[in-house]
Amino acid sequence: MTRPLYADQRLTALYDAINPPGPDHDFYLALGEPAPKAVLDVGCGTGALAGSFAARGHDVTGADPSEAMLAVARRRPEAVTWVLAGAAELDLGRYFDLVYMTGHVFQVFLSDEEIAAVLANLRRHLAPGGRLAFETRNPAVRAWEDWRPESSAERLSVAGIGEIEVHWDIRSVDWPLVTYETHVRLPDGEVLVAPDTLRFLDADRLGALMTMAGFEEMAWHGDWDGAPLAPHRPEIIVVARG
Fold first, then answer.
1. Contact partners, residue 214, CB within 8 Å, separation at least 6
2. Comparing C-alpha atoms, which of 13, 142, 127 is closest to residue 68?
3. How far is Cα 48 from Cα 44, in angstroms, rounded to an integer?
4. Checking DSSP bridges between strand 235-241 and strand 217-221, what pairing results, if any?
5. Percent of the chain with pLDDT over 70
6. Residue 58: what pLDDT?
7. Rounded to an integer, what distance in angstroms lies between the CA atom of residue 42 and that of residue 63?
8. In this predicted structure, what is the pLDDT of residue 8?
9. For position 5, what pLDDT does the model report?
10. CA nearest 128: which of 170, 176, 95, 99?
11. Which of 30, 75, 102, 237 lies at a 20 to 30 A Cα distance from 133?
12. What is the per-residue pLDDT for 6?
């Protein structure tokens, strides 16, 4: 099921402006070297990172459960195979050297059962020696505490649309689930509000789920510069071989 945040075409048209590429893109692109490789972007969204992989000569497939997001992705000039599918439902009939999820998409899987199904399916799509890479926010850093109007509000100028106002707000914390809202004021004054729920998972539990899914060789990082995991690091990044 497509989440409200990614179903409204007015929001998906603004996604890249609200979520510009950062050091996470550089981290994942480095995993693809040297090109060419068969690459699968799971939860590809508007396809910014998938397009960057394709521009470097990789054979790229981008999958997402949101038709509105893929409508943006399909307008990109790079040659990418776009697939409408969720992570647990993918059945592509081929194998990939690198499978990744970015944009903290892993946090949308809210139960151990859902995570197990996703990990098993993605491992099934890995070529021999292939790697799965993704990140989740470190719950010890409590990032959601900054998702308040007073600390998250910003104005953005979006080409072809105009100036928008964006902020986030917390609806509830029912640990380990955090439900928040994205608020966007459009140039005409209309306000769009999209709720979403994320799961915050610690490295120990994540490692156990990875092991149960059959992953044995795992490298862990706490930030995009490759720093080790630590309580004060913002990310839990895992790169695993199937």
1. 120, 123, 242
2. 13
3. 8
4. antiparallel
5. 98
6. 98
7. 5
8. 82
9. 65
10. 95
11. 75
12. 73
Average pLDDT over residues 151-161: 95
The mean pLDDT value for 123-144 works out to 98
Residue found by looking up tokens 């981290």 in the block: 27
**Token digits for 119?**
């990990």
Contact 191, 184 (CB under 8 A): yes
CB 73, CB 45: distance < 8 Å: yes
**Closest-CA residue to 122 (of 57, 41, 48, 201):** 41
What is the percent of the chain where pLDDT is above 90?
95
Residue 1 has pLDDT above 90, yes or no: no
Amino acid, res. 173: V
Q: Map tokens 């000039």 to a residue.
A: 77
Task: Transcribe the chain into DSSP letters.
Answer: ---GGGT-HHHHTTHHHHS---HHHHHHHHHTPSSP-EEEEET-TT-HHHHHHHHTT-EEEEEES-HHHHHHHTTSSS--EEEE--TTT---SS-EEEEEE-TTGGGG--SHHHHHHHHHHHHHTEEEEEEEEEEEE-GGG-GGGG-SHHHH-EEEEETTTEEEEEEEEEEEEETTEEEEEEEEE-TTS-EEEEEEEEE---HHHHHHHHHHTT--EEEEESSTT-PPP-TT-SEEEEEEE-
CA-to-CA distance for 49 and 30, rounded, in angstroms? 12
C-alpha closest to that of 96 among 63, 70, 59, 65: 59
| Nearest alpha-carbon partner for 72 in 17, 140, 135, 134 | 17
Global pTM reads 0.96
